[in-house]
Amino acid sequence: MKNWLIGLCALFGACATPPNCEAQHSPTGAARSTPITIGTSYILQSTTLGDERQINVWVPSDYGAADNANRRYNVLYVLDGALDQDFQHIAGLGQLGALSWTYEPLIVVGIQTKDRRAELTRRPENARHGAEFPQAGGARRFQDFIASEVIPFIDANYRTGEGRALMGESLAGLFVVDTFLHRPQLFRDYIAISPSLWWDEQHFARDGGRDIQGRASSNTRIYLAIANEGDATQAGMNRFLGLLEAAPPGSVTFRYSDRSATETHATIYHAAALDALRWLYAAPEPNYGPSPWYYLEEANRPAAQAQ
User: Fold this and answer.
1) Name one Pfam family in it (predicted).
2) What is the dihedral of CA 60, 64, 69, 71, to 10 degrees?
3) Distance from C-alpha of 220 to C-alpha of 165, rounded to nearest angstrom
């Protein structure tokens, strides 16, 4: 195990009390209890950040099956991925894919952020934005952390496939767009949900075309969704979509989901994430065969066979 891994425990397993949860209730009577384990939580000591970070991992239920020992899984990396952030509900979408067969099983990796305004942004060029957000500017270093420490750790300890996706919402969505523009080969797929494209007077939306020009054909894909976020964010999204439409043919495939009429910043994430996974990792429609007779109206049922 790498020397920058300083601790690990099974979530809600090895710990006497689950992190960020109230003490477990001890019921009376004959009921028996077993802690619920949804994954594994690691603490990485990062040399890049000079700090430790929680890295949470969920794997499909068949990951450890003996007849599945050689199977490799694509990996979904989730920003704001601590236990008290977005890891658990996105891990639930990983389970949904495995249960429903509507999209492929994935390994889900949550990456903890601590100071989102500092770690997920670049230093603004606009003076007023710079004065409003003096802590900003750590996005490149956080990208380095993911590239040089998180991904190698996951690849060394799990059966990972060739496909990697990066997902985030709000400032984390902005970080997804930043990574897509400036380090496009780090991930194959990008999921930016209500990204804060108002940032720095819509800098990425205005100037990102320079980062897309001349790109060669690739299998890069980006999913974008937006809630009712106000005019600056919507204007930034519209400009960014224009950049994608003008991208060199074959350089990127994108899908845009406008949810501004039905969703707010507080409600968009989970449903849009599900939509993204169904688009990016769609599984073939299962062939269930003919419908059972009891699913059909009586007039449409086949004749009953004699016993």
Assistant:
1) Esterase
2) 10
3) 10
Residue with tokens 């028996």: 32
Strand partners, 75: 107, 164
Give the pLDDT confidence of 120-176 residue by residue, as tens digits. Answer: 999 999 999 999 999 999 999 999 999 999 999 999 999 999 999 999 999 999 999
Alpha-carbon distances of 179 from 47, 49, 230, rounded to whole Å: 21, 18, 24
In the structure, what pLDDT confidence band is assigned to residue 110 with cuts at 50, 70 and 90?
Answer: very high
The helix or strand, by DSSP H or E, that contains position 8, with its residue range, turns out to be strand 5-10
Residues in the chain: 307
**DSSP readout, 172-225?**
HHHHHHHHHHH-GGG-SEEEEES--TTHHHHHHHHHTHHHHTTPPP---EEEEE
Pairing of strands 253-258, 40-46: unpaired
Max Cα-Cα span within the chain? 84
For 64-197, list the strands marked E by DSSP: 73-79, 107-111, 160-169, 189-193
Instruction: Quote the strand ranges of 16-98, DSSP E.
Output: 40-46, 51-58, 73-79
Residues 6+ apart with CB under 8 A from 88: 38
CA 144, 149, 150, 156 torsion-angle sign: positive
- The answer to whether the CB of 267 falls within 8 A of the CB of 226 is no
CA-derived radius of gyration, the chain = 22
Q: Quote the CA–CA distance of 243 and 94 in Å, as a whole number.
A: 31
Instruction: Tell me the fold of 37-286.
Output: Rossmann fold (3.40.50)
Q: How far apart are CA 13 and CA 85, in angstroms?
A: 19
- Taking the C-alpha atoms of residue 119 and residue 200, their distance in angstroms, rounded to an integer, is 15
Q: Catalogue the E-assigned strands of 3-159.
A: 5-10, 40-46, 51-58, 73-79, 107-111
